[in-house]
Amino acid sequence: MKYEDYQHLLFDHRDNGVLLVTINRPQVMNATNAVLHYELTQVWGTIDEDNQTNVVVITGAGDRAFSAGGDLQWISEMVGNPELVNRVQQEAADIVYKLLEFEKPVISAINGVAVGAGLAVALMADISVMSETARITDGHVKLGVGAGDHAAIIWPILCGMAKAKYYLLTADFIDGITAERIGLVSLCKPEDEVLPAAMKIADQLAAGSQTAIRGTKQTLNGWMQQAAPIFENSLRMEMLCFLGEDAKEGVAALKEKRVPNFPSSKIN
Length: 268
Description:
The chain is of the alpha/beta class. The chain has one domain: 2-enoyl-CoA Hydratase, Chain A, domain 1 (Alpha-Beta Complex). It is built from 13 helices and ten strands. The strands form two sheets. The protein has a six-stranded mixed sheet with strand order 1-2-3-5-7-10, sandwiched between helices. Strands 4-6-8-9 form a four-stranded mixed sheet. The N and C termini lie far apart (52 Å).
């Protein structure tokens, strides 16, 4: 794909080799639909071929969200739909693996709520700058599906197994201050300083040795690549759950804005 082919991503090239990418569905808090999900698998290849870009900063349009999870209609279509589940499973793997393979440094400016595939991009970035008031959650279990996407491959490395299990099993929200404290993000800043801080880091990296920076990134990514079998198992578990009764109830509860009553929670 070329830059002009993207529907929900905006691109702003800076003269020093920094590219600002903006997730652009502000009317729905930049939620991920089928088109955006696919674009997040392709964009890293597009940027890799761009010889004018050495560093990427990615953020969300508006001041409310980085990306507020999956579009509810799209998620509803996945429940009980093996063909769609298989396609989404492959795309979810691509988002993570293509970010790991992408040699240029990526900085996420987490300006608001981040959930789902958007959160995968935000936390798989090499450096993450999060607003104090932003909130993130891996909300899979509240939907009745296993924590897939990216969590199993990187949360234990970032914040340790104890915190990873707590937040992935409860799906509690985490604010920027807490996320920085437990090591889930690199830096936490006041809301109006998030993007400027991310751009300042990008400028610093753009002025550095690109071979040294990229080589260091790829070496460190080896830790995540070792966890590939764990990640792939988490994806299978997530997608298998989408074919079950709990996911039906999870989606219904989300639509009706109520607490889910999962069939699997009932004691016989």
